[in-house]
Amino acid sequence: MDEHKNAADYAYVLYNMAQLHWHRNEYQEAFEVAQASLAIAERLNDPAAIARAFEILALACHSLGEWRTGIGFEQQRAALAGSSLDVTEAFDVHL
Predict the structure, then answer these.
(1) Is the pTM of this model over 0.90?
(2) Distance between CA 36 and CA 11 in Å, rounded?
């Protein structure tokens, strides 16, 4: 996939891959893929994509025992997307 041409789609695919890793208890992999998603989302300056990446980074950090770092990611997500959390996409991975 051409990241530059399809950058928004690629960031979303990486977000979903990070979720899949997280659901498989592959927390380090989830963290690394979420970081890649975040980097693309930040280059695009896409607040929704950035918030999604922060969401999975927070989950991965919590699962890795890095809860303080995870709280920081969650605070950044909340600053962009508000304090409510829409878990629809997270649960859709199971379907």
Answers:
(1) no
(2) 8
